[in-house]
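pasting input
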Amino acid sequence: MTLTDFQHLMPLLILTFAVLVSMLVIAVGRNHKIMYVITAVSFLAAFASLFELRDVGRYTIEPLLVVDGFGVFYIGMMLLAALLISMLSYAYFEQREERKEEYYMLLLLATIGACVLVISKHFASLFLGIEILSVSLYALIAYLRTRERSNEAGIKYLILAAFSSAFLLFGMALVYASTGTMEFAGIAAAIANFTELPLLLLTGFGLMIVGIGFKLSVVPFHMWAPDVYEGAPAPVTAFIATVSKGGVLGVLIRFFMEVDGFRYPTLVLIFTIVAIASMLAGNLLALLQRNVKRILAYSSIAHLGYLLVAFLAGNQMGVEAVTFYLVAYFITTVGAFGVVAMLSDKERDAEQLEDYRALLWRRPWTAAVFTAMLLSLAGIPLTAGFVGKFYILAAGVNTQLWLLVVMLALNSVIGLFYYIRIVAVMFQQPEAEAEIQPRGRLRPSIYVASVGTLTVLALLLVYIGVYPSGLLQIIQGLLVTSTAP
Amino acid sequence: MELTFYIAAAVAVLATIMVITRYNMIHALLYLVVSFLAVAVVFLTMGAPFMAALEVIVYAGAIVVLIIFVIMMLSLTREDVEQEKAWLQPKLWMGPALLSFVLLAELVYLLVIAEMPAAPAVAGSYVDARAVGLALYGPYVLGVQLSGILLMAGIVGAYHLGRQKKKVIHRFLQEKEPQKERSAAI
């Protein structure tokens, strides 16, 4: 480790330092507000430190990590998402009786895990990153222990995540057995001469896809998603849907670009089937749900399917499309779960469709933001979701993935139905006069952070939807350094 | 050396099968210890004595002792064994076991036909404690740090989830509440 190594790992060091400081602060005295400020400031500081790494090129810290434009962009994206989630968490946890302070520590730790994932270039760091992320998530999901479903969700995630980690490890072992190395570059060199993957290596990759697919909750490894989304506290759900999936998708892209996995028809076939199944199953199952959190869970399964379409394009444009769509997806998902978190009261989360009846008349601004988020998820023009979907379609058409493109278009139509249904419920006329009265709220000052965050998200959503080229330039500028091997 | 490897590997597999088929948890645990010891012998025959020692100390020693404590606290009785027996009906596990067996057969076939790229000879390389230490605190020092972070996440999470619920406050702690109120009243 040299001084330059430390400079390039500055975001991670800041986060780690913040965790240690929080632990000491808890030891001195518990204070929700101080913990919240420490967390938010450290996320901001870590994000600011990324500007130093703007034009890093490709800096490797042998043998585990590589810091490049791709990694810097993904880390920045995840840090911002985590910052917004922590801001939404404050009001959510303030009204709950549980101890709140450990939540922020676990949030920081989980973010560290996700950041390690996107800059790893070695199986060891990949696995450690995934484990840091998962272990923090076990506790985060079951965090509100007094709630009915939280234990169920926690246990489900624990068992399935541990099981999928075992698959991942076994796959890594097989890949190691047949290539003799655990570095991505080394594997790429070892298989460079094969036109067809040897069976053992294919088995290894297949088992790894099981482990990765679980984390991405793509069909057929999606069973946990609805239950866990429903049982976990709303901000944690937002975290699972965004940062956790973004990190894993980042390392998947890095690995595939490095070993050039798109050369092998078998792997492409596997991902094609997974993508189509995710889009179809996600959207069709969402139609049957009456629970907003479960609808969003199925919709996130479908969105991962869309992302895989661009991923399968397998070229520079595909990576750009994935990244752009991921940004749009992050904004909308954090926004949607932010609304859910804000409407939640002391006992339970606002998750039933009934809770949203006539929301427009009770809380017009919240309803407007939620509508914007849902329309963006559906891919309506003037929102970021539309531009992202357009970009994915372009990437798909560009590489002639006709089947996937047709499925994507078809699924967007199915998806439109259940998003619009939530919007319609919100726009219904209130039945009784009593419903117009807003429910008892907390002190307004607590809501400032939530309201501010939601406003920022809504503005970003429309800004990227109307003027996408600004974001595109950033993405292209940062990615150009990394994907050209 | 080859023969010792195969014997130890066979013992490990058999012991692990016994672990998951026993009705009595203590019996299962004893087989688990045997399985760990067999894996330790496997490591030894592969030329990794330090790993073998760690396997014995950490798994067979510390972790199994922890599990024994948990089982003691559960205070299992003969009825629990019967219950376990009732749950583990052949019709329940036959299906999954058959399917898993097919997968296992496929995997074994794959491993048999695969050409290993110059597989390291079983007794060839020798990795002692010094080599492990140099690797961990040389190139892989970041991995060690990350493991530390992982442990921290585990401990913080376990602390939060394992904290006693409000309903069962210990009597020493219960006395604090009125005191607090008194001081607040003053």
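fyi Chain A has 20 helices and two strands.
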